[in-house]
Design brief:
The complex is a heterodimer of chains A (388) and B (596).
Chain A (H helix, E strand, L loop, with lengths): L21 H6 L4 H11 L11 H10 L6 E6 L8 H24 L3 E6 L7 H17 L5 E6 L9 H8 L23 E5 H13 L1 H5 L9 E8 L5 E6 L4 H8 L4 E6 L5 E4 L18 E6 L4 H15 L5 H18 L7 H15 L3 H5 L1 H10 L1 H5 L1
Parallel strand pairs in A: 1-2, 1-4, 2-3, 5-9
Antiparallel strand pairs in A: 5-6, 7-8, 7-9
Helix pairs in contact in A: 2-3, 2-4, 4-5, 4-7, 10-11, 11-12, 12-14
Chain B lengths: L4 E6 L2 E6 L4 H7 L23 E4 L6 E2 L10 E3 L3 H16 L15 H9 L17 E2 L5 E4 L8 H9 L6 E3 L6 E3 L16 H5 L5 E3 L3 H9 L4 E6 L20 H11 L3 E4 H24 L9 E2 L4 H10 L13 H17 L6 E7 L3 H5 L15 E4 H10 L21 H4 L6 H15 L19 E7 L14 E8 L1 H12 L7 E5 L17 H17 L9 H11 L5 H7 L10
Helix pairs in contact in B: 2-3, 8-10, 8-14
The chains are: A alpha/beta (388), B alpha/beta (596).
The structure holds flavin mononucleotide, iron/sulfur cluster (4 copies) and FE2/S2 (inorganic) cluster.
The site of flavin mononucleotide (FMN) has 23 residues of chain A, from strand 4 and helix 13.
């Protein structure tokens, strides 16, 4: 294990040092393959949660033989406890546009879309102004790539990439079967790169500082730095850019309130790490990955309530199409309630854990597949709190 | 699909299948059955029930075998411990959400969920019963369809059916999470939305959530009432479908046994819708020739192409979706309704029965006919012309309830004077059949000769292609039809409402020019009707079609105008096709309906 300590970084929100779109202008002097190889070499993995290598995603899409391709920026930011994409859009939107344009150029797409969380409607005027400017600039550069805004409708599931495409196509936001993956058949059944807001911003940074410089940060599995949305029992809630690969203890020492009982890493769909495991938990793809959400709980919190809240959230936000998720979520919620009330024996929790494990491998999309993360990690570590 | 072969192993047995084949089909090739619920051969792949999951070596997730294409070198296990656990969980979850009162359920005995539950012996209530907590929403507003949400497993087959096969979109998924359900536009009752009552969703619903509105009790009561004379008519497609629900393989013709069973059950007159199918040809054929004459000779503006009107699901579709084309519909009632109007007039008079005491029942492959018989226009006899419509499936239930050993019955014949029919009437049950029957008669009326096709088989109008076209050159006409000499009659046929929808769009925009169009609301025509035995599939429908055409070939009379009882009714009662009496009893009109 590479021993990293907590290190604050200032790349994403760093001021623009040069004139507008200088980085993009320079990138366009390279060939698409050069760009893709640079991104592959940087080791950048998606910042939306799943952590797929960004360069590979672009390469697969580029290799598809289809005249129409799309670039989509996932700005649905629905994961509870995540609020970093909004900040990026508000403060350094240009970097996102630059990253999208880089992608469009690299894969041969002429259109890019930003799928914006419905609640972020108030951002639209500013974003549109910047997009307008981008359009003019792209024209000047002879770059055949336009960017459009699309509003989401407030459903968490529409952040899942294939549900997002369905939603953009005017259909009900239900995840699709995979394969085919978006790189082959995404928006309008055309090859599509979909990346998180932060991923595109990070692309711009890599283009600016080079992959060699970027790789100096993080670990071999988790290159670079990323934004963390820190909330819960912390004296200093907010958004922080940190190097990847730190142990969770470091994080808690810096942001906890001295009485931290557990940290929920990765939002409602992430893992709960209890105090005793903080030391041996690495934040990164080799340990626990996160889209950025870090929720800190101190000893005053009931982990039953925490889990109950999460399960209520999933019950409401499951699209409802597949059996393991739609019914499984209801059973998990009703199940812990009945154990709490003493209607079912504590051992019923083990049945429920098995059920959660089935959901993890049999549900149709990432939502249902990830319910077991909080469920099993909370039940395993805080069993007494669930029962009594 | 490409011709490229992919090699994989299922349960350690190698198999090669075409690229793009699903794991499910690859396994089937090796005779490994994987259970399914949301999958259906007529529909797009959904992959939502997850009961078909299998394990793929090296993959983190189980794969939904219906929705996952094979890939080179794949090693699939359809029965590993992981698979069995997940599958059992899925079934248990479905049942925990399901109002499983099988003994009282209409689908008891023919239910895919019940079969699975029995296969997996999910007995002890592992999970918490979620049914109690939910509202049981039962929609019995429609005269054709009953929708019981407490039996729904959300497989969305109905939604896909209504949208993909029928282009109606009456059903939709609403809300999410634990509130997700199948509903209609604005949650309105089924009888207030665009639903055409075609029943195709019923045919594909794996559970008892969607079923026909049943009138079995009403019919038994009428039979048991000594003061009532109960007449029954049987549609063309019933005789080639009924056997499937009574122990036969698809494609068995059971006409004679069905007639015998109806007598055993206690119907007082056992008559045949095929008789009025022949009559329809006389009326509709004459109507077509008249429209052509008015257009070509008198230069009048008449609505062409003329379109058939035997399929009440199609009629309601047209009223909602293409109200601007209602004049194109033939004014002929469906054979069922012609029959109803004549039963309580002509038949009653001839047989000396007071129509007041007559109960008219029809056995139909169709659920839309349950709606049709209560349309306010359908009371030309002075009474409701047809009182109750039962599906083929309901008739099978009656046969069983009556304790009849169907397979052992001796064949019997229909009663006269509305029981005789020709092969032309029988083929009404298949897509293209009305067209073929009409051409056999119209061509002969105009030229005095048989249609120029070997053994009267007009092949271009047969088969399951979504939209068929044919052209027939008319030559050597009789003097009175001189205006048709050398004309080329151009016809088209569509079955299933999404095909009809495409055809109507082309007609509306003037992209196509036909004289005559046949539309049947259901895929394959009535043989694939919403009241036919479940399951249905392209294979099953093909076998039913084969049975229909062989029934036609086996009959001595195969042209509607040769039906002696048809000749008799014109002589004794109706006068002539399109005459006054016909106009009063056999023709109708349509009304535009809103889409929302
Ligand atoms: C239920 C669910 C919700 C999701 N919501 C988001 C989201 O709000 N924003 C996001 O970027 N990715 C979200 N994702 C992940 C996306 O499906 C997709 O993996 C991501 O946008 C890819 O971008 P990346 O590779 O840059 O991370 C969600 C996934 C699931 C299963
Ligand atoms: S896992 Fe949940 S959210 Fe995903 S498709 Fe299934 S029901 Fe919908
Ligand atoms: S739908 Fe099937 S499982 Fe459900 S009650 Fe009816 S027969 Fe039983
Ligand atoms: S009966 Fe036909 S039109 Fe009505 S909901 Fe079912 S499939 Fe749709
Ligand atoms: S009504 Fe039937 S076909 Fe429709 S979703 Fe429910 S179970 Fe499936
Ligand atoms: S049959 Fe495959 S998921 Fe339903």
């Amino acid at each position: 294990m590479e021993n990293k300590t907590l290190k604050k970084i200032d790349l994403i929100f760093a001021d623009y040092t040069s004139s507008k779109y200088k980085v993009l202008e320079k990138v366009l002097e390279k060939t698409p393959d050069e760009i893709i190889n640079e991104i592959i070499d940087s080791g950048l993995k998606g910042r939306g949660g799943a952590g797929f290598p960004t360069g590979l995603k672009w390469k697969f899409t580029k290799n598809e033989d289809n005249p129409v391709k799309y670039v989509i920026c996932n700005a649905d930011e629905g994961e509870p406890g995540t609020f970093k994409d909004r900040e990026i859009l508000e403060r350094v939107f240009r970097k996102v546009l630059s990253g999208m344009a880089t992608c469009g150029y690299a894969i041969g797409a002429k259109e890019g879309y930003i799928y914006l969380r419905g609640e972020y409607l108030y951002l639209v005027p500013e974003l549109e102004k910047e997009i307008e400017y981008f359009d003019e600039f792209a024209k000047k550069l002879n770059l055949d790539f336009r960017i459009f805004l699309r509003m989401g409708s407030g459903a968490y599931i529409c952040g899942e990439e294939s549900a997002l495409f369905e939603s953009m196509e005017g259909k009900r936001g239900e995840p699709r079967n995979k394969p085919p993956y978006p790189t082959v058949s995404g928006y309008n059944q055309c090859p599509t790169v979909i990346n998180n807001v932060e991923t595109f911003a990070t692309v711009q940074i890599i283009c600016k500082i080079g992959s060699e410089e970027f790789k100096k940060l993080g670990t071999s599995d988790s290159r670079g730095s990323k934004l963390f949305s820190v909330s819960g029992d912390t004296p200093t809630p907010g958004i922080y850019e940190l190097e990847l690969g730190m142990p969770l203890t470091d994080f808690v020492d810096n942001y906890g309130d001295g009485d931290t009982k557990a940290v929920q890493v990765g939002g409602a769909s992430g893992f709960c790490v209890p105090r005793k495991h903080l030391k041996d938990t690495i934040i990164g793809f080799e340990g626990i990955p996160t889209g950025g959400s870090m929720m800190i709980f101190n000893s005053s919190r009931s982990m039953y309530n925490v889990l109950h809240d999460y399960l209520e959230f999933f019950n409401e936000e499951s699209c409802g199409q597949c059996t393991p998720c739609r019914v499984g979520c209801q059973q998990l919620l009703k199940g812990i309630e009945s154990v709490k009330k003493g209607e079912r024996k504590p051992q019923y929790l083990d049945e429920l854990k098995k059920l959660a494990s089935t959901m993890k491998i049999a549900a149709k999309c990432g939502l249902g597949q990830s319910v077991a993360n909080p469920f099993n990690s909370i039940v395993d570590n805080f069993r007494e709190e669930i029962i009594y | 699909m490409s011709e490229y072969l992919v090699n994989l192993k299922v349960n350690n047995i190698p198999v090669s299948v075409k690229e793009g084949t699903s794991i499910l089909d690859a396994a089937k090739k090796l005779n490994f059955n994987i259970p399914t619920l949301c999958n259906h051969p007529d529909l797009s792949v959904a992959g939502n029930c997850r009961v078909c999951v299998v394990e793929v070596k090296g993959a983190r997730l189980l794969a939904a075998s219906c929705a996952t294409p094979v890939s080179e070198g794949m090693e699939v296990s359809t029965n590993s411990e992981k698979v069995r656990t997940a599958r059992k969980h899925v079934i248990e979850l479905l049942l925990s959400e399901h109002n499983a009162d099988c003994t009282k359920c209409f689908k008891n005995g023919n239910c895919e969920l019940q079969d699975l539950a029995s296969e997996y012996r999910v007995g002890d209530h592992v999970f918490i019963d979620l049914v109690k907590a939910k509202d049981k929403i039962l929609d019995i507003s429609s005269p054709s369809i009953t929708k019981d949400d407490s039996k729904c497993i959300r497989c969305q087959r109905c939604v896909r059916t209504c949208e993909e096969l029928q282009a109606v979109g009456a059903l939709a998924v609403v809300k999410k999470g634990d509130h997700q359900r199948i509903s209609t536009f604005l949650n309105k009752p089924l009888d207030e939305v665009v639903c055409t009552n075609c029943g195709q969703c019923i045919n594909r619903c794996p559970t008892g959530s969607l079923t026909e509105r049943t009138y079995l009790d009403e019919v038994w009561n009428a039979i048991n009432d000594p003061s009532k004379h109960v007449v029954v008519q049987t549609a063309p497609a019933v005789r080639i479908g009924l056997g499937e629900d009574l122990g036969y393989d698809p494609g068995e013709r059971v006409t004679g046994k069905m007639v015998a069973a109806l007598r055993h059950i206690g119907f007082d007159s056992v008559l045949d819708t095929d008789f009025t199918a022949d009559l329809t040809i006389m009326e509709e054929g004459t109507e077509l020739l008249t429209r052509l004459k008015r257009a070509l000779v008198d230069g009048e503006k008449v609505a062409l192409p003329m379109m058939t009107s035997c399929s009440p699901g199609w009629i309601k579709f047209q009223e909602h979706m293409f109200p601007d084309l209602l004049d194109n519909l033939s004014t002929c009632k469906s054979p069922q309704q012609m029959f109803g109007a004549l039963a309580k007039t002509y038949y009653a008079r001839k047989k000396g029965i007071d129509p007041k005491n007559m109960v008219s029942v029809s056995i139909m492959p169709c659920t839309a006919k349950k709606f049709e018989c209560v349309r306010p226009e359908m009371r030309d006899s002075g009474y409701q012309d047809v009182d109750y419509v039962l599906t083929t499936r309901e008739l099978a239930m009656m046969v069983k309830q009556a304790g009849i050993d169907f397979m052992k019955l001796e064949d019997e014949k229909y009663d006269s004077i509305m029981g005789n029919s020709t092969g032309a009437a029988v083929i009404f049950g298949a897509t293209g059949g009305v067209m073929e029957a009409a051409l056999r008669t119209a061509y002969e009326i105009v030229t005095g000769r048989e249609v120029p096709f070997t053994n009267l088989k007009i092949m271009p109008v047969r088969g399951f292609e979504g939209i068929k076209e044919a052209k027939i050159m008319i030559k050597g006409v009789k003097p009175e039809w001189g205006f048709l000499e050398g004309a080329e009659l151009s016809v088209a046929i569509a079955h299933g409402l999404s095909n009809a929808n495409e055809l109507m769009k082309a007609v509306r925009t003037g992209k196509v020019n036909y004289h005559f169009i046949e539309v049947m609301g259901c895929p394959g025509g009535c043989l694939g009707g919403g009241g036919q035995p479940i399951p249905t599939s392209p294979d099953i429908r093909q076998k039913r079609a084969d049975a229909i055409y062989s029934e036609d070939e086996g009959l001595p009379l195969r042209k509607s105008h040769e039906n002696p009882e048809v000749a008799q009714i014109y002589k004794d009662f109706l006068g002539e096709p399109l005459g006054h009496k016909s106009h009063d009893l056999l023709h109708t009109h349509y009304k535009p309906r809103k889409r929302y």
